[in-house]
Amino acid sequence: MRFFDREKEIRRLEDIAKISKENAQFTVVTGRRRIGKTQLLLRATAGQPTLYFFVTRKAEPFLYQDFQQEIRDKLNLPVLGDVTSFGKLFQFLMQISVERHFNLIIDEFQEFLNVNPSVYGEMQHYWDLYRDKSQMNLLVCGSVYSLMHKIFKDYKAPLFGRATAFMQVRPFKVSVLKEILNETYPGFMPEDLLALYAFTGGVAKYVQLLVDNHALNFSKMLDFIIQEDSPFITDGKNILIDEFGRDYAVYFTILSAIARGENTRGAIETCVGKEIGGYLTRLEHDYGLIGKNIPLFAKSETKNVRYAIDDNFLTFWFRFVYKYSYIVEIAQYNELKRIIERDYATFSGKIMERYFRDKYIETGGYTKIGSYWDRTGENEIDLIAINELDKKAQIIEIKRNEKHIRYNALKEKTLGMLNKTGQLKDFRIEYRGLDMSNM
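Below the sequence we write its predicted structure tokens.
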């Protein structure tokens, strides 16, 4: 699959590279695994003098040997003197950068915590010592959200305050997924687009795997995803084990409950069997995995809260792969596919609501976009898009099948919402139904 999208990110990285020729730059790039951070950095620095260091869990001297070879190959420089640690190697590079400009990419930067945590303190020392004279464009990226946050956002950490820019690489937007299908699978059906969005969430590597294996309709996607040795089977656990450590079982139970629709704190606690306030806070703020949603027009302190997993792939993984891990363990992949096919209409119906919300956000022209529900959960509106400047609002019901859209019921629910909240007075309200044909 060719390189898609990321024009905005590349322009920003190119601007940073230009600035670094006069003032050293230290950019932190984050994003979940498989999102395309490495390819983005390599593409943005193509044709420039660039060192690429990948940090793996090996003894520091062996890691240093790998990096030394990269310096020889890319900058045609021997590493002189008694350099036996990454800290000293970084000092050497900072000294070189006083005389010449180059990019230094350090991939999986958080892994130094396992190799030698003192690296961060040494880097701080040499960065502070040389940065005013340096021409280095330092780009570090990492996939473990909590650890990258600890390294750069904890005010006690050595590298706190050293970064000159932060960038988060996000999934492909829905328009990009449509572009990819138009180019690689012309004539695709709305069901195929919804499946691509539901299974991958726009994560670049997952999309690439499906494109490269010509698995671009719903049936072929499912066959590729649910098979022996599929990365879609193992990635959920692989991605999150490093984040959660020994507490992963509790976190997995919470995420599994949310994925199958138990989205209030009370319902989740019933599934887990214990108080989970601290876990939910960490999942939202420390790990960046869930969102806390409240109805439009509700006060920020409302207890009418619903939780959702922000990552489509992980929503799918917890809803089907983790839940039915006992089927995976005995390699009954056909049976798992039958379960997914049985439950997919209900599962994808909720994903459609997220799809159209993303589409409205990408289209722009609105000041508020969200949903509404009351405490009983009965008076529920799928999507509301408001332009407060023009005093216009769209009230939207979303169904897979157009025949299931009930405009009269939507208007009655809207009237109940307006009476309860006192909002949207003097607004011009348009009622819409969105289905598969609108994707």
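The mean pLDDT is 93.
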